[in-house]
Amino acid sequence: MSVNVAAQFEKLRAQLDKEVTNIEKTVGDMEYQYLQLESSQMGTVLKGFEGFLSSKDTMRKRSRNVFRTEDRLFSLSSKTSPVSREQEQANQEISESMAMPNNNFRGKVSG
After folding, report:
1. Counts for the chain of helices (H) and strands (E), in that order
2. Cα dihedral across residues 28, 33, 39, 41: positive or negative
3. What are the Cα distances from residue 40, in Å, to 26, 27, 29, 44, 66?
4. Residues pairing with 21 in the sheet
5. Is the confidence at residue 67, as pLDDT, over 60?
6. Among 50-54, 56-60, 61-65, which range has the highest average pLDDT?
7. SS3 per residue for 8-24
8. Alpha-carbon span 102 to 93, nearest angstrom
9. How far apart are alpha carbons 78 and 45 in whole angstroms?
10. CB under 8 Å, gap of 24 or more: what pairs does 9-16 form?
11. Regarding predicted confidence, which is higher, 103 or 47?
12. CA of 83: how far to CAs of 61, 64, 68, 98, 104, in Å?
């Protein structure tokens, strides 16, 4: 009997994991679309609308459809989201590359 219950819980867990993955993907896709909107160049809910209120053309002439990964507040709020995993992997690669010793130094050490 307990094996059957454990199997049911495992099946439910797998189903919930799949649902969470689908929701995180949907949130990431919607967030991407929102940040790509032409109107988001004047401001977003997350950053504010300084560009919309500004009469300066410099605010409006920012490069189109460019946003940083850090702008993805919703996707990065979950450690299991694809965006969060990509960011974590990129950070790990940077850390590993910085930890490598620099063998290009050929200068003499005075002592």
Report:
1. 5, 0
2. positive
3. 19, 17, 16, 5, 10
4. none
5. yes
6. 50-54
7. HHHHHHHHHHHHHHHHH
8. 16
9. 19
10. none
11. 47
12. 27, 21, 12, 23, 35
Amino acid (1-letter code) at residue 98: M
Of the CA atoms within 13 Å of residue 101, those in its CB half-sphere come to 2
pLDDT value at 24 more than 60: yes
Tokens of 106: 């050929």
Q: What's the pTM value of the predicted model, to 2 decimals? A: 0.61
16, two tokens: 């919930």
For 66, phi and psi rounded to 5 degrees? -115, 125
Of residues 7 and 96, more confidently modeled: 7
